[in-house]
Design a protein that fits this description.
about 180 residues, alpha+beta, four-stranded antiparallel sheet, 6 helices, globular
Length: about 180
């Protein structure tokens, strides 16, 4: 997992809960907290940090993942190269497609060891986008938060349903519905 995810997580925890709590989370997870945005790290370390934060705050790990995804959207959006043609996106559905069709491919080109999630698109109408999220990291709630951040960015109201396809959490069906104004 790319280090930018770790650095974003620690910045969010410090901003929302304070440096003292971040230090306790790191100590509880037996983590030194030394990450660079361009490094690659084991996703299990992030899971340990999220579980530790959950213990400290009493907030469910899934809820923390969602908040993290939403809070991270703008920084990830800004980090996408101009060549991704983000300016052509006018709504969430276009952006979600661009993530799979361009951004994930570019990440793989830039970082040979990268293993980003995969989106398999099932169907799309003007108001509903259905896709499967596939990831060995089982962090579909981060994806949910990113979708919520995307909706805020494009000023759209969405309803998002998640349906795990198996007990492991590595495949989750998303049904994203544009709420009528």
């Amino acid at each position: 997992m790319k280090g930018i995810i770790f650095t974003e997580f620690m910045e969010l925890v410090e901003r929302e809960f304070g440096l003292e709590l971040l230090d306790r989370v790191l100590a509880d997870a037996d983590d030194q907290g030394i990450y660079t945005s361009v490094g690659s790290y084991d996703h299990k370390d992030l899971v340990k940090l999220i579980v530790s934060l959950s213990k400290e705050t009493g907030i469910a790990p899934e809820a923390l993942q969602t908040v993290f995804g939403k809070a991270t959207f703008m920084n990830l959006y800004k980090s996408v190269p101009e060549s991704a043609n983000l300016k052509s996106c006018k709504n969430c559905f276009q952006f979600i497609r661009l993530v799979e069709e361009h951004i994930h491919l570019e990440v793989k080109k830039l970082y040979g060891d990268a293993n980003p999630p995969k989106f398999v698109f099932i169907s799309e109408t003007e108001t509903v986008l259905e896709f499967d999220y596939l990831s060995a990291r089982c962090m579909a709630h981060v994806c949910l938060g990113l979708i919520e951040g995307c909706a805020d960015f494009f000023d759209q109201s969405l309803r998002v349903e998640m349906d795990p396809k198996d007990g492991s959490g590595d495949t989750v069906r998303f049904v994203v519905t544009l709420n009528e104004a």
